[in-house]
From TrEMBL:
Alphabetical keyword list: Membrane, Transmembrane, Transmembrane helix
Stated name of the protein: Lantibiotic protection ABC transporter permease subunit, MutG family
Taxonomic lineage from the root: Bacteria, Bacillati, Bacillota, Bacilli, Bacillales
Keyword check for Transcription regulation: no
Spans traversing the lipid bilayer: 20-38, 50-72, 99-120, 132-150, 157-181, 227-245
CDD domains for this protein: ABC-2_lan_permease_MutG
Protein backbone atom coordinates (compact mmCIF):
# COMPACT_ATOMS: atom_id res chain seq x y z
CA UNK A 1 0.00 0.00 0.00
CA UNK A 2 1.36 3.43 -0.93
CA UNK A 3 1.35 6.60 1.16
CA UNK A 4 -2.02 7.74 -0.21
CA UNK A 5 -3.66 4.43 0.65
CA UNK A 6 -2.21 4.52 4.15
CA UNK A 7 -3.31 8.13 4.53
CA UNK A 8 -6.90 7.30 3.63
CA UNK A 9 -6.90 4.34 6.03
CA UNK A 10 -5.53 6.47 8.88
CA UNK A 11 -8.11 9.16 8.17
CA UNK A 12 -10.92 6.59 8.32
CA UNK A 13 -9.66 5.41 11.71
CA UNK A 14 -10.09 8.91 13.13
CA UNK A 15 -13.66 9.40 11.94
CA UNK A 16 -16.16 9.73 14.79
CA UNK A 17 -13.41 9.71 17.39
CA UNK A 18 -13.04 12.17 20.26
CA UNK A 19 -10.07 13.76 18.51
CA UNK A 20 -12.23 14.93 15.61
CA UNK A 21 -14.75 16.50 17.98
CA UNK A 22 -11.90 18.26 19.77
CA UNK A 23 -10.53 19.42 16.42
CA UNK A 24 -13.92 20.89 15.53
CA UNK A 25 -14.46 22.56 18.91
CA UNK A 26 -11.07 24.24 19.36
CA UNK A 27 -11.30 26.79 16.48
CA UNK A 28 -14.85 27.77 17.46
CA UNK A 29 -14.01 28.25 21.13
CA UNK A 30 -10.72 29.98 20.37
CA UNK A 31 -12.18 32.50 17.91
CA UNK A 32 -15.18 33.17 20.18
CA UNK A 33 -12.90 33.83 23.16
CA UNK A 34 -10.81 36.38 21.28
CA UNK A 35 -13.82 38.04 19.67
CA UNK A 36 -15.32 38.51 23.12
CA UNK A 37 -12.02 39.91 24.40
CA UNK A 38 -11.55 42.44 21.58
CA UNK A 39 -15.19 43.57 21.35
CA UNK A 40 -15.35 47.20 22.48
CA UNK A 41 -11.58 47.67 22.37
CA UNK A 42 -9.78 50.06 20.03
CA UNK A 43 -6.81 47.97 18.90
CA UNK A 44 -5.26 48.34 15.46
CA UNK A 45 -5.68 45.54 12.92
CA UNK A 46 -1.94 44.78 13.04
CA UNK A 47 -2.00 44.46 16.84
CA UNK A 48 -5.00 42.15 16.64
CA UNK A 49 -3.22 40.03 14.05
CA UNK A 50 -0.08 39.68 16.14
CA UNK A 51 -1.99 38.90 19.32
CA UNK A 52 -4.26 36.32 17.72
CA UNK A 53 -1.72 34.51 15.56
CA UNK A 54 1.00 34.42 18.20
CA UNK A 55 -1.46 33.13 20.79
CA UNK A 56 -2.61 30.47 18.35
CA UNK A 57 1.00 29.51 17.66
CA UNK A 58 1.72 29.22 21.38
CA UNK A 59 -1.18 26.79 21.83
CA UNK A 60 -0.30 24.55 18.86
CA UNK A 61 2.38 22.39 20.55
CA UNK A 62 -0.21 21.12 23.04
CA UNK A 63 -2.62 20.19 20.24
CA UNK A 64 0.19 18.44 18.35
CA UNK A 65 1.05 16.45 21.47
CA UNK A 66 -2.58 15.46 21.97
CA UNK A 67 -3.20 14.52 18.33
CA UNK A 68 0.04 12.55 17.93
CA UNK A 69 -0.51 10.71 21.21
CA UNK A 70 -4.11 9.84 20.35
CA UNK A 71 -3.23 8.62 16.87
CA UNK A 72 -0.38 6.38 17.98
CA UNK A 73 -2.32 5.10 20.97
CA UNK A 74 -4.93 3.81 18.50
CA UNK A 75 -2.23 1.77 16.75
CA UNK A 76 -0.99 0.43 20.07
CA UNK A 77 -4.45 -0.70 21.14
CA UNK A 78 -5.22 -2.24 17.73
CA UNK A 79 -2.43 -4.79 17.97
CA UNK A 80 0.66 -3.22 19.46
CA UNK A 81 1.86 -1.83 16.11
CA UNK A 82 1.87 -5.24 14.41
CA UNK A 83 -0.33 -4.05 11.54
CA UNK A 84 1.89 -1.01 11.04
CA UNK A 85 5.20 -2.84 11.32
CA UNK A 86 4.45 -6.31 10.01
CA UNK A 87 1.60 -5.86 7.52
CA UNK A 88 1.64 -5.49 3.77
CA UNK A 89 2.15 -1.73 4.08
CA UNK A 90 5.73 -0.50 3.81
CA UNK A 91 7.01 1.06 7.00
CA UNK A 92 7.92 4.31 5.29
CA UNK A 93 4.42 4.66 3.79
CA UNK A 94 2.83 4.01 7.18
CA UNK A 95 5.07 6.52 8.92
CA UNK A 96 4.69 9.23 6.28
CA UNK A 97 0.91 8.85 6.22
CA UNK A 98 0.74 9.59 9.95
CA UNK A 99 3.08 12.53 9.58
CA UNK A 100 1.03 13.99 6.74
CA UNK A 101 -2.24 13.38 8.57
CA UNK A 102 -0.94 15.30 11.57
CA UNK A 103 0.08 18.11 9.22
CA UNK A 104 -3.41 18.14 7.68
CA UNK A 105 -5.18 18.18 11.06
CA UNK A 106 -2.98 21.03 12.26
CA UNK A 107 -3.54 22.97 9.04
CA UNK A 108 -7.30 22.53 9.25
CA UNK A 109 -7.41 23.65 12.87
CA UNK A 110 -5.46 26.82 12.07
CA UNK A 111 -7.48 27.43 8.89
CA UNK A 112 -10.87 27.30 10.64
CA UNK A 113 -9.59 29.33 13.59
CA UNK A 114 -8.43 32.06 11.18
CA UNK A 115 -11.60 31.94 9.03
CA UNK A 116 -13.88 32.22 12.07
CA UNK A 117 -11.76 35.05 13.47
CA UNK A 118 -11.83 37.01 10.21
CA UNK A 119 -15.57 36.43 9.84
CA UNK A 120 -16.15 37.58 13.41
CA UNK A 121 -14.11 40.73 12.89
CA UNK A 122 -15.88 41.55 9.61
CA UNK A 123 -19.51 40.78 10.47
CA UNK A 124 -19.45 40.75 14.25
CA UNK A 125 -17.22 43.72 14.99
CA UNK A 126 -17.76 45.61 11.73
CA UNK A 127 -14.05 45.95 10.89
CA UNK A 128 -13.02 46.62 7.30
CA UNK A 129 -9.22 47.03 7.42
CA UNK A 130 -8.48 43.33 7.92
CA UNK A 131 -5.03 42.28 6.59
CA UNK A 132 -6.24 39.17 4.78
CA UNK A 133 -2.91 38.44 3.09
CA UNK A 134 -1.13 38.59 6.45
CA UNK A 135 -3.51 35.95 7.80
CA UNK A 136 -2.96 33.77 4.73
CA UNK A 137 0.81 33.96 5.19
CA UNK A 138 0.44 33.45 8.94
CA UNK A 139 -1.61 30.30 8.32
CA UNK A 140 1.09 29.00 5.99
CA UNK A 141 3.91 29.64 8.47
CA UNK A 142 2.09 28.18 11.47
CA UNK A 143 1.19 25.06 9.49
CA UNK A 144 4.50 24.34 7.75
CA UNK A 145 7.06 25.51 10.30
CA UNK A 146 5.85 22.99 12.90
CA UNK A 147 6.81 19.98 10.77
CA UNK A 148 9.81 19.33 13.02
CA UNK A 149 7.54 19.26 16.07
CA UNK A 150 5.27 16.71 14.37
CA UNK A 151 8.20 14.33 13.91
CA UNK A 152 9.38 14.84 17.48
CA UNK A 153 5.94 14.11 18.89
CA UNK A 154 5.50 11.02 16.74
CA UNK A 155 8.77 9.65 18.12
CA UNK A 156 7.74 10.42 21.71
CA UNK A 157 4.28 8.88 21.19
CA UNK A 158 5.70 5.71 19.62
CA UNK A 159 8.36 5.14 22.27
CA UNK A 160 6.90 6.65 25.45
CA UNK A 161 3.15 6.76 24.85
CA UNK A 162 0.28 9.22 24.74
CA UNK A 163 0.88 10.70 28.21
CA UNK A 164 4.47 11.63 27.40
CA UNK A 165 3.41 13.22 24.11
CA UNK A 166 0.80 15.37 25.85
CA UNK A 167 3.31 16.28 28.59
CA UNK A 168 5.83 17.31 25.97
CA UNK A 169 3.10 19.36 24.29
CA UNK A 170 2.51 21.24 27.54
CA UNK A 171 6.23 21.88 27.93
CA UNK A 172 6.39 22.98 24.29
CA UNK A 173 3.57 25.44 24.94
CA UNK A 174 5.64 27.07 27.69
CA UNK A 175 8.75 27.07 25.50
CA UNK A 176 6.85 28.70 22.63
CA UNK A 177 5.46 31.36 24.96
CA UNK A 178 8.99 32.19 26.14
CA UNK A 179 10.35 32.31 22.58
CA UNK A 180 7.58 34.77 21.63
CA UNK A 181 8.95 37.27 24.18
CA UNK A 182 12.18 39.24 24.15
CA UNK A 183 13.99 36.22 25.59
CA UNK A 184 13.85 34.59 22.17
CA UNK A 185 15.03 37.54 20.07
CA UNK A 186 18.55 36.21 19.56
CA UNK A 187 17.98 32.45 19.60
CA UNK A 188 14.56 31.82 18.06
CA UNK A 189 16.07 30.74 14.71
CA UNK A 190 17.55 27.64 16.38
CA UNK A 191 14.52 26.59 18.45
CA UNK A 192 11.80 24.60 16.60
CA UNK A 193 9.09 25.68 19.05
CA UNK A 194 9.71 29.32 18.13
CA UNK A 195 9.50 29.03 14.36
CA UNK A 196 5.72 29.21 14.01
CA UNK A 197 5.10 32.24 16.21
CA UNK A 198 8.17 34.10 15.01
CA UNK A 199 7.69 33.53 11.27
CA UNK A 200 3.99 34.41 11.40
CA UNK A 201 4.57 37.43 13.63
CA UNK A 202 7.47 38.83 11.62
CA UNK A 203 5.58 38.29 8.37
CA UNK A 204 2.70 40.33 9.73
CA UNK A 205 5.06 43.15 10.69
CA UNK A 206 6.66 43.24 7.24
CA UNK A 207 3.37 43.10 5.33
CA UNK A 208 1.85 45.76 7.58
CA UNK A 209 4.21 48.33 6.05
CA UNK A 210 4.72 50.22 9.31
CA UNK A 211 8.41 49.32 9.65
CA UNK A 212 11.15 51.63 8.47
CA UNK A 213 12.98 50.33 5.39
CA UNK A 214 16.12 49.53 7.41
CA UNK A 215 14.14 47.63 10.03
CA UNK A 216 12.13 45.79 7.37
CA UNK A 217 15.37 44.66 5.71
CA UNK A 218 16.73 43.54 9.08
CA UNK A 219 13.59 41.53 9.81
CA UNK A 220 13.67 39.91 6.37
CA UNK A 221 17.34 38.98 6.86
CA UNK A 222 16.49 37.35 10.20
CA UNK A 223 13.62 35.46 8.58
CA UNK A 224 15.88 34.23 5.78
CA UNK A 225 18.45 33.09 8.33
CA UNK A 226 15.81 31.32 10.37
CA UNK A 227 14.24 29.76 7.29
CA UNK A 228 17.56 28.33 6.13
CA UNK A 229 18.24 26.72 9.48
CA UNK A 230 14.64 25.48 9.86
CA UNK A 231 14.59 23.83 6.43
CA UNK A 232 18.00 22.22 7.00
CA UNK A 233 17.16 20.89 10.46
CA UNK A 234 13.75 19.63 9.32
CA UNK A 235 15.31 17.78 6.36
CA UNK A 236 17.86 16.13 8.64
CA UNK A 237 15.14 15.32 11.17
CA UNK A 238 12.99 13.70 8.49
CA UNK A 239 15.86 11.53 7.26
CA UNK A 240 16.78 10.47 10.80
CA UNK A 241 13.18 9.73 11.78
CA UNK A 242 12.58 7.57 8.68
CA UNK A 243 15.84 5.69 9.29
CA UNK A 244 14.85 5.09 12.92
CA UNK A 245 11.33 3.94 12.09
CA UNK A 246 12.59 1.45 9.50
CA UNK A 247 14.60 -0.27 12.26
CA UNK A 248 12.16 0.16 15.13
CA UNK A 249 10.79 -3.15 16.43
CA UNK A 250 7.75 -1.79 18.21
CA UNK A 251 9.30 -1.75 21.65
CA UNK A 252 8.36 1.05 24.00
CA UNK A 253 10.31 2.53 26.89
CA UNK A 254 8.18 0.49 29.30
CA UNK A 255 9.22 -2.86 27.81
Amino acid sequence: MNVWGCFRADLMKLKRTKLMWILAAIPVAYAALFLAYFTGRTESSSQMYLFYMESLGVALPFFIGLAAGFMIDQERQAGHFQVLLGGTTSRISGYMSKLLLLLLLQGLLIFFAVILWIGGMKWGMGLTDIPIWSYVCGWFWLTCSNFMLLMMHLFIAFVFGMGASILMGGAGLLMTALMATGLGDQVWMYVPWAWGVRFSGLTGMVLDGSLAPEMANYVQDKMAQGMGFAVSLTAVGLAVSIAWFRRWEGKTAHE
